[in-house]
Amino acid sequence: MTPPKTSDALLVIVPAYNEAGAIAGVVADIRQHVPGVPVLVIDDGSVDQTAHAARAAGAEVLPLPHHLGLGGCVQAGYKLAFELGFEYVIRVDGDGQHDARDIPRVLEELRTSGCEMVIGSRFLTPGAGHTGVVRRLGIWFFRMVLRPILGKPVRDPTSGFVGVNRRALQVFSVSFPLEYPEIETLVVLQRRRFRFAEVPCKMRPRVAGRSSITALKSLYYITHVLLGVFVNILKYEGRLRRPVESGPERGD
Amino acid sequence: MDRLLNVTTGVSILLLILVLGSLRRAHIRVEYSVSWVLAGVALLVLSRNRALLEAMGRTMGLVDAPVALLMVAGAVFLLMFFRFSVIISHLRDDNIALAQRVAILEYHLRSLQSSHGD
To answer: Suppose A93 and one of A119, A160, B4, B102 were both cysteines; which one would form an S-S bond, judging by CB atoms 3.0 to 4.6 Å apart?
Structure first.
């Protein structure tokens, strides 16, 4: 992948960990619905054939030397995109749950709204999301927590279908939550007075593999994310004063 | 009381032998062994110097001097564990940043190689 020739170039990134069964379909889906847009699969130390399958499907692959977790994996993609000079980056999950037909809608919103982040939301269209009762309850809980912090409602705070512009890329390539980043990134953006918008998107059942958040991990997830949210609020002032530094966000 | 202090003496000597042995075999770096050596020496001195221990117990408002010793030891180890948690967090952050940098550099290298190959 070479640096983009236009000033408003888009890169689609796909974080993937042991998604050999789904990644080829995800890449093909993206290439079909946004032709000509480079696709970067970030292989988070998979032990299966994820990288090979992604290359065979026509994607560029950024293989991480070992497993970093979702946040470290996504941040690696953001860093590369920022270094190469991309203006927009849209993240699509590697498990096949996101519909690539929604990518143009996210991009259009990024371009026209001026928001730093656009979230593909499952809950703006009735019946568009495939989520269980427990997960819905969790999402509702975080909506309630985030509402006063963000100053506006967010319908799908746990969505991994996210587009960002270069201003957000600059922030995320320096500081990004390491585990379960979706909710914390909203707070990170809000603390910098960046804006976000939501556009409707469809969610499909997983093509292969399992979700990283099992029932047993839910409690850990909630505690971890809550702590991360409040830590991000508390360190706002310090961060503003601190010069740009490299490395992931501490305390994740 | 004497038995407890003897046990504490034994533990502190064992700790010092373990730390110094690990240092000699380069299993532990000097900068991370200093806290353990200091903790071991402090435990040894307090468990062998009853006057000092009793003075410390009185200062802390404790009648039983060995309890004061245990409390101090507990507090010291808690602080050390916290310090090591900070160090581990730094190491993890550095490790992630390095892994990302290695991956990006490898990516650029491959791109260069393939562009030269064309």
So the answer is: A160
* pLDDT > 90 fraction of chain A, expressed in percent and rounded: 50
Of A157, A116, A12, A17, the residue nearest A73 (C-alpha): A17
- A123 falls within a domain: yes
Assigned domain for B117 exists: no
User: Does the residue B104 lie in any domain?
Assistant: no
**In total, how many domains does chain A have?**
1
**Tokens 């026209």 identify what position?**
A112
Report yes or no on A58 lying in a domain: yes
Contact A119, A159 (CB under 8 A): yes
SS3 A13: strand
Looking at the domain assignment, is residue A4 inside a domain?
no
Q: How far apart are the first and last CA of chain A?
A: 31
Burial of A225 (0-12, 13-18, 19+ CB in 10 A): buried
Q: Which residues from A are below 8 Å from B112, CB to CB? A: none
Q: Which domain holds residue A165?
A: 10-241
Per-residue pLDDT of A75-93, as tens digits, reads 999 999 999 999 999 999 9
Per-residue pLDDT of B23-35, as tens digits, reads 888 888 888 888 8
Any domain includes A252:
no
ipTM for this prediction:
0.75
Does residue B37 form part of some domain? yes
- Report yes or no: A89 and A168 within 8 Å, Cβ to Cβ: no
Q: Which domain holds residue B14?
A: 2-83
- Counting the structural domains of chain B, the total is 1
- Amino acid identity of A117? M
Find the largest Cα–Cα distance for chain A.
47
Instruction: Answer whether B96 sits within 8 Å of A178, measured CB to CB.
Output: yes
Contacts with B107 from chain A: Cβ below 8 Å: 60, 62, 80
Predicted TM-score (pTM) of the model is 0.80
> Which residue of chain B is at minimal alpha-carbon distance from A61?
B107
d(CA A197, CA A114): 9
